[in-house]
Amino acid sequence: MSRTNELRMITRVAQMYHLEGLKQSDISEVLRISQASVSRLLKRAEAEGIVRVSIVAPSGTYPDLESAIREKFGISEVIVADCREDNDDAVFSAIGVAAAHLLEQTLEDGDVIGVSSWSATLQQMLDNIHPIKRVRAERVIQLLGGIGVPSAQIHATQLTTRLAHLINGEPQLLPAPCVTGSPESKRILVSDPHVKATVDQFKRVTTAFVGIGAMAPSQNLIYSGNTFTQAELEELARRGAVGDICLRFYTADGEPLAGEIYERVVGMTLEELQAVPRVIGTAGGKRKTASIAGALRGKLIDVLITDRFTAERLSELT
Amino acid sequence: MSRTNELRMITRVAQMYHLEGLKQSDISEVLRISQASVSRLLKRAEAEGIVRVSIVAPSGTYPDLESAIREKFGISEVIVADCREDNDDAVFSAIGVAAAHLLEQTLEDGDVIGVSSWSATLQQMLDNIHPIKRVRAERVIQLLGGIGVPSAQIHATQLTTRLAHLINGEPQLLPAPCVTGSPESKRILVSDPHVKATVDQFKRVTTAFVGIGAMAPSQNLIYSGNTFTQAELEELARRGAVGDICLRFYTADGEPLAGEIYERVVGMTLEELQAVPRVIGTAGGKRKTASIAGALRGKLIDVLITDRFTAERLSELT
DNA sequence: CCTCCGCATGAATATTTATTCACGCTTGAT
DNA sequence: ATCAAGCGTGAATAAATATTCATGCGGAGG
């Protein structure tokens, strides 16, 4: 009987606080109890399920998918971009916009940004960044060499340079091909002062933006001809590769696939990547599902930006 | 496009705050925005309807009825007691319990409590009060004379005395019949030192507990024989009386019915009652609907305690 | 091209809310 | 009956949240 009365009191307090918008001290005056008691009653109201807060996802946002992925993979942040269709153009564009927003919103003075060149989503990000005056990034570091052929080299360079310009930082280029013919030539390249200077900066990166590559042939033709041979790719696949970040291949569990190929890549290693405080992975599209899942399982990235279709697939993985 | 992104942000913040229970400063750290911005986003989340708080009434509580009555009559507080059946016994008991709780919860040191004797609900209240040690009321004042016959006088006296005892106050009795034969005899009675002492204390009352009487014959037989004649009651009815508080009759609009009868009552006037900071009216039952409505319309009481059936009827009045 | 206005931001601060603390009541065991 | 443990309370205080203020950006209109 007293229980009912107590519930009534709790309900009344909750009503005054949440619906009428009164402050606790007002309520305490009206009901003649102390403010401390009002606070306690409100806490009980939540505990007893008398007040319930529900969050309605506005159209175009996918908080449920985001939390599903966060929880499933134990990752700290997931951004699911809205996207009309499930094709690469639409997906990459949506992800790029979201990535641009994330960069704009979270860039801080003195940040050192790393970017893996050669990602369609990062390209899209570039196109959607609003020039930022507010803060001044220290520098933008290219995390992966350019592609073998000189014209392609330019692309990678441009991505880094443009980004640096947009966020008021110095570009720090990695003037090298991304894949060398042998571990020896890689070692020699890395001893070049310009290359070494950049590699030495890797440990200073505060935020890295990286694309996630899939094993299946990509539109960018990254691997074909310019980088790895078909045979090499087949070997990687045989060893369990599901995708790559900065051309560092990893398995379904996100374990790096060490070996000769690993030693021929000029760019940040996955170990170095782990040491970066915030790694933002951007990727989407049907081909990428397994690649993304691997990166998530291996905790290779801290933040995932993807599209709603890919997010759906990720959340449904067994 | 940016709108979607903003909504996503708002939703995410709302989620972290309301569902995950993070504090704003934590959120601001994770999302890398200032705590002020988090606060602002949360406010927007409510404004945009992204977070909704709903209050679920626990069974046995009737917040909707309460607010309906509060709003309809512009009264500051309504307590609707749970009650299984719509008969006087059940109703009076439920109201008594609720009144007792209210008294216990809101009694403050030094309060001067007024009680109109001869109310079945107040009798019930007495039986349900837990002795209070915490605070010490200054005194309990009897607001209405006892009924004519001596044995009944005792009842009124006892109610006041028992209450005073329960809340550690001094009883201040009104040693007089509640209705005299004529205005003159009333004036003489009131000049009696004991009676006058009590009447003089009326203005010091901080909280008054009053029953609300109905016109139709009551179980207590208050009016018949002991107080007013059938003819007098009929006259009152003809003049529009719908009920009484402390035997002060009033109309459907809560206007006091002045006149000879009014001058023959020994007890607090409705004018004096208006001056009391907090007047708590207790009443319920089918016969009382119109009486309560009148008291509410005339703002004769500040707090109404009733049962859910009566509350329903009150809320449905045109 | 420049200037002014409105808007958004974060730091500082004011306000509000939650927690701690000390105390008194109740309860249940001895 | 007496005492200790546990609960609930309000006052004081700590913590969290909202608001103010000053500043800088972006766009409209000279």
UniProtKB/TrEMBL annotation, chains A, B:
Pfam families: MarR_2, Sugar-bind. Keywords: DNA-binding, Transcription, Transcription regulation. It comes from the Bacteria. GO terms for molecular function: carbohydrate binding; DNA binding; DNA-binding transcription factor activity. InterPro entries: Homeodomain-like_sf (IPR009057), HTH_MarR-typ (IPR000835), NagB/RpiA_transferase-like (IPR037171), SorC_transcr_regulators (IPR051054), Sugar-bd_dom_put (IPR007324). Residues 64-314 form the Sugar-binding domain. The keyword DNA-binding applies. The keyword Transcription regulation applies. Transmembrane segments: none annotated. Residues 16-53 form the HTH marR-type domain. SUPFAM superfamilies: Homeodomain-like, NagB/RpiA/CoA transferase-like. Belongs to the SorC transcriptional regulatory family. This is MarR family transcriptional regulator. It comes from Endobacterium cereale.
